[in-house]
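Worked problem 6 (solution included).
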Amino acid sequence: MSMSMKAPILRRHYRSLKMPKPAAQAFVMQKKFFLSTVQLLKKLVEERKEKGEIPVELRLCDRAAKIISGTLAGADDFDTEFLDYILAVKIVDSVEEAVEHISKHSTGHSEAIITESKEAADYAHKYGATVEAELGHVGDGIVSGVIKEDGNYDNPEDYLTNPEEMKRFIAETGVDCLAVAVGTSHGVYVHEPKLDFERLELLNSISDIPMVVHGGSGTPDDQIKKAISLGVTKLNIYSEMMAAYFGTMKEELEKAGTMAIWMSNANREPLKAVKKVVKEKIRLTGSAGKA
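Solution. The predicted structure is:
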């Protein structure tokens, strides 16, 4: 069984916040899953350090600190929106304990519950959580502006969603929607966008829940339209929005000739650029006038 099959990630967006999907500031994990995630956490710390990148600092509860190296979490660490390379980690025995912990400490922004049972997902639904999982792995291109000097990027074709796993995955996890890996990449493409429509058509025939495309930024319009015709109902385009924002911001700062600009003025044109991207995608996807 693949790791994606074992470990759907439940993201609860508190108070119905409508914002771009953030990276998690806190991970709350069932112990049996944490034991298989240690290597991933080590990778966040050790490999980034070896590459000269900013390592992720782990703030650990007592139980996690006995399993992996890091800083022992203080009283306020689970109440803090760090906005930095810091991840607070908490081990729990049940999803009930996880929900109780997050309800107590939530900042209302970017917590995640990691679990591996359908019962856990069902419990999360009682608290208004919409559960989205990814099966397979959407490749990583240039993410968050980080260009890999060694050029060692994921090839999206190596991690495509397995149709044989899909039906079982949906039944066992109880997710509400599923992000399928069909050739897109997170961030900015470093390979030519080439969606596997034959696979997507097969996945659509199997799935009884909405399908999602992560890594939609930069995907050609004709491929997006065809993906929608084959069952895709949600498209993530965060990198494309950020490219419009910062590209326009750069132009505006160069024209201004000074950095002493009011934020409200500096943001005006970049925000218009983001709105333009969103409006274009709304029209492209056939969502205009639909709520």
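Discussion: The chain has a mean pLDDT of 78.
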